[in-house]
């Protein structure tokens, strides 16, 4: 008796046609390749049987996204008005204020979303900070974007980086 008689037959992966495999899902028996195999405490599973879902902190429903958007708009409007009231001699201190704006934006979004995280909330925070910048420019100059406002651009970049960090 040769050793090849004891090996299971080689079949094609159910997800990736043309890829030969000897693996099968431990629950449903579907042929799976190493790329689509998920290791679980119960053994190897296909993606359907593994029942993959995001952790609860990253499970952001539509209502939570709307609350985050409302918080971002509120903070953005208030911050934009306050930013426009700053005296011109603030200088490099504006970068510390930008970091503070990023912190306040992230904290507001986290509070209204019950500490949820994720890519959508990061984007929302970024848009809230851009709203603050646009409001500031509109109140000061009558246009949403001022050409050559290097300090403003850097302040927005710092605020966005600080805001998205806790939302990752």
Whole-number total of structural domains = 2
Number of strands: 6
Let me know the average pLDDT.
Answer: 91
By DSSP (H or I, 4+ residues per run), the number of helices equals: 5
Strand line-up across the major sheet: 1-2
Shape: elongated
How big is the Rg?
26 Å
Strand content: 5-15%
Reading the helices and strands in chain order gives EEEEEEHHHHH
Largest sheet: 2 strands, antiparallel
**Structural class label:** mainly alpha
Termini separation (Å)? Answer: 57 Å
Poorly predicted segments:
none
* Helical proportion, percent range: 40-55%
Report on this structure.
The protein is mainly alpha-helical and 168 residues long. The chain folds into 2 domains: 48 residues, no CATH class; 112 residues, no CATH class. The protein contains 5 helices and 6 strands; from the N terminus they run ββββββααααα. The strands form 3 sheets. Strands 1-2 form a two-stranded antiparallel sheet. A two-stranded antiparallel sheet has the order 3-4. Helix 3 packs parallel to helix 5. The model has no long low-confidence stretch (mean pLDDT 91).
């Amino acid at each position: 008796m040769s050793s090849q008689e004891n090996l299971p037959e080689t079949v094609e992966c159910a997800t990736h046609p043309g890829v030969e495999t000897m693996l099968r899902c431990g629950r449903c028996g579907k042929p799976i390749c190493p790329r689509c195999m998920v290791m679980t405490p119960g053994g190897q599973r296909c993606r359907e049987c593994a029942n993959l879902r995001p952790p609860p902190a990253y499970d952001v429903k539509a209502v939570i996204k709307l609350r985050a958007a409302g918080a971002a708009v509120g903070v953005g409007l208030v911050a934009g008005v306050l930013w426009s009231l700053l005296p011109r001699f603030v200088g490099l201190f504006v970068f510390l204020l930008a970091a503070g704006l990023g912190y306040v934006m992230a904290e507001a979004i986290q509070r209204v979303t019950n500490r949820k995280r994720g890519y959508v909330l990061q984007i929302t925070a970024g848009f809230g900070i851009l709203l603050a910048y646009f409001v500031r420019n509109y109140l000061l100059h009558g246009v949403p974007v001022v050409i050559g406002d290097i300090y403003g651009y850097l302040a927005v970049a710092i605020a966005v980086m600080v805001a998205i960090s806790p939302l990752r």
